[in-house]
Amino acid sequence: MTAMPRICCCPCRRLCRPLYASILLILIVINCTTTINGSPSLNKKNIEEKDKVISLTEIDQNDNTENDQIVQSNGNLISIENGNVQPLHDQHQHHYNHNLIKTPAVVATENYNDRLRPRTQKRKHENGLNGFSHNILVPKKIKKLRRTEHYDASTLVKNANELQVLIDYAIDWAHSNGLILRTRDHLNTSDLAEFAPFSLFPTPFPRKIFNQALNVQTSMQLLYFRISKDFEFLKTVHQDIIKTDKVVKSFMEIVEKVYEEGIHQPITLFFQRSDYMLHSSKNDQSEDNYALKQIEVNGSALGGAGLVTRVTRLHRRMLKKAGIEAPKSNVPDNGSDVMTAKALFHAWQLFGKADAVLLFLVDTNADMLQFDRRNIQYEFERVSKDQVDVVRLSLTQCTAKLMLDPVDFSLRLVDDGRVIAVVFNQVLMLGSSPSHMELDARLMIERSTAIKAPSLVFAMSHSKKIQQVLTRPGMVERFLSGPSEAHLVEKIRQTFAGLWGFEADKEKNDQLIQMAIKHPDRYVLKPIGEGCGAHFNYFDEDIPKKLAQLSPIELNDFILMERLKPKAYRNHFVRAFLPPMINAEVTSELGIYGCLLGNISTGQVLLNRQEGHVSKSKLLSSNEGGICSGTGMIDTPYLVDID
């Protein structure tokens, strides 16, 4: 055996061997320390031998706190103060870039990446900022909040570098998973797309109020189904409106022709989304009270059902990346697209013809929600296992591509004569401005044996005027009159906000107008149509101005609604081609999806289901919150336990 070289004058090798090994170990540790960091500051890190994960918490705590309010956007650094975006000066840009490269966290991950690869990930973030890049170490330990009311989306990530990496990750995920829109400048093509605006994390929402909205939805659908059966009621409610609103008049004429001729297809399917706000008020003890208050009920073209499920999936990912557990009890499942697809397939099966076609009635000319509509189509094809052919036509195309059989009133494709089983409407009805050709197409569809999803009469039953009339005493009871339905009436009425219509009584109208002029901050002036388009709401000083422009007969096209005071939270907003809005104060609007399949002649309900939801958030300072208009963001609720 080769003799061990002596390193001291002691003749006893047995004593030197452990000493020699200890010295070598110390030298190795010193060498590794110098290699990793190049400075004694490595002692600030917490290297956990058990998990082999480097914790960056202590390092981040020693960083300049100004950096926590700095993020990168579109190649530029911006400072966020109270939600306001300000560009940084050049010297601050240089200071931040320097810190971006020299942070010990980056050096540590670069040198330890190979050694820690089984338990960590290394993501290189290329942002095009002067050729620089930075890294972030994941994963974080996933923790469960002990009390859900402590959840605050604005404080989940405090480090600016890390926040920007999460934003970039979310944007790429949105593009990769169909959370996208057509661009405003290229509405006619899908060659270009932008991600739909979204919040980076879910926004808090009281669990009790959320469950109340879910539980009332099927009752709401039953109410509107029965309203649609009462055509005489619909005519009476809209009799003054048709004097000034040409679209409503045209729709009522189409429905009347169908009833006079006889309904050739009594089976009908409609999808509904009831929109609510979390209204906050003070009780006598100045304590906060929260109530679910209905804003509107939509019943024709429901946008977003193919997008919102993706936002739920995205938010669960983002919470986990921020180190927060995302159980279904806090971020509930969202199946609006699956519900829609299954209901359409059920309707197709009821039609009873194996080679019949499903028609998607779309606006092919200019639709930002093209990918949203496609997501529903793809889900339908999955549910039906590709056994049903899907045809997409606009109303204008229907006049040339479809024909009505004069014998059996079946709706057929001109090219091959195949029968249309279901017409799934994805075009705005009330609030639109249809041409004569489009009205002819509507009449042809309504007269046919195709199952309408929904029929035109359902759109008429969802006008704002109907919603206002339902707040009158006895009106809900008119349609839910049985003893076993009394509790349904109570559930529905609890959600009503104050609504007033401009009726034939001039004295009452004058009182209502004076009330709105005196306190415009307490009301919202709304057109009776559905959706946006050329119709929009009026707030504050715009209310007196608009009322002054309306003749007594034009007042019939509007209703006055109590202005709600929603509870505000903070979150981060991510928008295409714009800097992200950090720690913005936002309010949310909760939408609940559902569907009902029934026989409009007999009143039989074949399917009445609630599934899916959407939260649309906007800045507290904004009055409107439309997704396509760019003033709102798609959000999801994070359920919290508060009174």
Automatic annotation (TrEMBL):
Q: What is this protein called?
A: Glutathione synthetase
Which biological pathway?
A: Sulfur metabolism; glutathione biosynthesis; glutathione from L-cysteine and L-glutamate: step 2/2
- Domain of life, source organism: Eukaryota
Instruction: Give one GO molecular function term.
Output: glutathione synthase activity
- The UniProt record lists the Glutathione synthase substrate-binding domain at 357-457
**What's the EC number here?**
6.3.2.3
The UniProt keyword set, sorted, is: ATP-binding, Glutathione biosynthesis, Ligase, Magnesium, Metal-binding, Nucleotide-binding
SUPFAM superfamilies, A to Z: Glutathione synthetase ATP-binding domain-like (SSF56059), PreATP-grasp domain (SSF52440)
- Provide the transmembrane region boundaries: none
UniProt-listed Pfam families: GSH_synth_ATP, GSH_synthase
What are the leading ranks of the lineage? Answer: Eukaryota, Metazoa, Ecdysozoa, Nematoda, Chromadorea
| Catalytic reaction equation(s) | gamma-L-glutamyl-L-cysteine + glycine + ATP = glutathione + ADP + phosphate + H(+)
Q: What cofactors are annotated for this protein?
A: Mg(2+)
Q: Please report the organism this UniProt entry assigns to the protein.
A: Heterodera trifolii
The text of the family note is: Belongs to the eukaryotic GSH synthase family.
